[in-house]
Specification:
heterodimer; A: 7 helices; 0% strand; B: 307 residues
């Protein structure tokens, strides 16, 4: 069961790396977070530890419902629906991510846990989304995808206390809100959410 | 005895092929909210076309005369080389490479057919078809390599038998199945790549190549395309989700396996019709993006299977 969910996380990560429409990216992010929440639920059921259930509830509420709603609002406010000028084209993003997934699995072949490797892959997906795109909304989704990867690290590797899980989740929520406001402000100031124009602020 | 059942199951699949196409058309009509044609309509279409004579353009060569019948015969050969719902071991035939190369003959001959009658639409369709298949063939061979690395055999009967034992839907298997599903849509000119319903539009690919033939030749080409879709769906089901396929000669277990097979095909047809009625067709130069996603998925599947 965990393996099917892990494959959904991996497929959503690979698919998200090349999407241009911000709506689709948002849906992919929600699907990915839902899969992560269900992984937490299954882990909690098999191990019987209560903090997995807390993480499941927090992930479900913040990342599946609230954060996609915030992103949706900022897309609607700014009316920028798709990425037009890419630094890294869709084809190359897919192929680059495929090669990096291969390298991840080669270098981490001593770890038997899939969640650790998939966490690494989500961080690489986030990096590709942040570096290869120009729109602020896409970069925000890239950062949130990296955070998803960190959550996967956390449930696979070390057993942290619930307080750190709370910390990660709320940090992410606040970050999404702040970035939503920032995107709105950038759009109001420059009439675009292309982050290249931010260098005009130097004067 | 088992070879007789192989023969009979392939005959049943051949007889059911137009029905599957009718089911897709009916499902799509239902999703769009109108009452579609009967599910038996493709049988009547084929009957009408088979009753007509052939009309061949004066400027065409021998390719137009032979291409439709060779396409049909190679697609029928493929149907007789794959397991459907009964599968005991078979060491005489069933190599995946032979199956995919026989399906490649259809593509080769239909692109020649598009060029042959020297009309502008046909040449455009052929160039588009080859442009897409240039990206699709590597994915197909990577997926065949994945199946080999998973089961250590190229024989589709053995692959299906090994994959049907036990519950082995791990990460690599699921990802490779998604990659094959994309390949299925691309190879059969279904919706995100090509619209199978339109005629005389500048975007068509498969229909553009067979625009210049009519009558019995058109029936041969249409039936070959139908059989290609059915063969791809059957290969998809029997390589990736073969649970329920039977290897005993008992009549009741064969009936149960047939019912499970029909249910799985109906599931795949439902998914195809949902995708076709909800998605818009991609621009031609966006198609390589879809295919590079499928390439990335199949590469990842091989790597995960290996490590």
């Amino acid at each position: 069961m965990v393996e099917v969910l892990v494959s959904f996380i991996l497929i959503s990560g690979i698919a998200m790396s090349g999407f241009r429409r911000v709506n689709l990216l948002n849906r992919g992010f929600a699907l990915q977070s839902l899969s992560i929440a269900l992984v937490c639920l299954v882990k909690g059921y098999t191990s019987g530890e209560y903090h997995y259930y807390i993480l499941f509830l927090l992930t479900l509420i913040t990342k599946v419902i609230i954060i996609p709603f915030i992103i949706d609002r900022s897309i609607k406010d700014t009316k920028k629906k798709r990425e037009t000028e890419l630094i890294l084209s869709g084809n190359w993003s897919y192929i680059l991510l495929g090669i990096s997934v291969a390298l991840c699995f080669v270098f981490l072949r001593d770890f038997s846990d899939y969640l650790f490797k998939v966490g690494c892959i989500l961080i690489i997906t986030g990096i590709i989304l942040m570096m290869g795109r120009k729109k602020a909304v896409t970069q925000m989704i890239g950062l949130l995808t990296m955070e998803n990867g960190i959550v996967l690290f956390e449930i696979s590797m070390v057993k942290m206390g619930s307080i750190i899980e709370f910390g990660i989740v709320f940090e992410m929520l606040i970050m999404a809100m702040v970035m939503g406001v920032m995107v709105f402000r950038i759009n109001k100031t420059f009439d675009t959410i292309n982050t290249d124009y931010l260098s005009n602020l130097k004067e | 005895m088992k070879y007789i059942i192989y023969f009979i199951q392939s005959l049943i699949l051949l007889a059911l092929t137009p029905l599957f196409i009718g089911i897709i058309k009916n499902f799509k009509a239902t999703f769009r909210g109108y009452k579609g044609s009967s599910v038996f309509q493709p049988y009547f279409d084929l009957q009408k076309l088979f009753g007509k004579d052939r009309v061949i353009s004066k400027s065409s060569s021998f390719i137009t005369a032979i291409a439709p019948i060779i396409s049909l015969s190679s697609s029928i050969t493929v149907i007789f080389l794959i397991p459907v719902f009964f599968n005991a071991e078979n060491s005489y035939y069933g190599n995946l490479f032979i199956i995919f190369f026989l399906l490649g003959i259809i593509k080769f001959l239909s692109s020649l057919l598009g060029l042959d009658s020297a009309s502008t639409f046909g040449g455009m369709g052929s160039s588009r078809e080859l442009f897409i298949s240039m990206f699709a063939e590597p994915i197909m061979f990577i997926l065949v390599a994945f199946l080999y690395l998973e089961t250590k055999t190229f024989n589709i009967f053995s692959i299906s038998l090994i994959n049907s034992e036990g519950f082995k839907y791990n990460v690599a298997h699921t990802i490779a199945a998604i990659g094959f599903a994309v390949l299925l849509m691309v190879e059969n000119a279904r919706m995100p790549v090509d619209n199978p319903e339109t005629h005389l539009e500048l975007t068509m690919i498969h229909e553009a190549m067979i625009l210049d033939i009519s009558g019995r030749d058109l029936a041969y080409m249409e039936f070959a395309a139908y059989i290609k879709l059915t063969a791809f769906i059957t290969i998809f089901i029997n390589c990736f989700f073969p649970i329920g396929i039977t290897y005993s000669l008992n009549l009741s277990s064969i009936c149960i396996a047939f019912a499970i097979y029909i249910l799985k095909v109906l599931g795949v047809l439902t998914v195809i019709s949902i995708i076709e009625s909800t998605m818009a067709k991609f621009r031609l130069f966006r198609i390589p993006e879809l295919l590079s996603a499928a390439f990335s998925l199949s590469l990842v599947a091989i790597v995960i299977n290996y490590f």
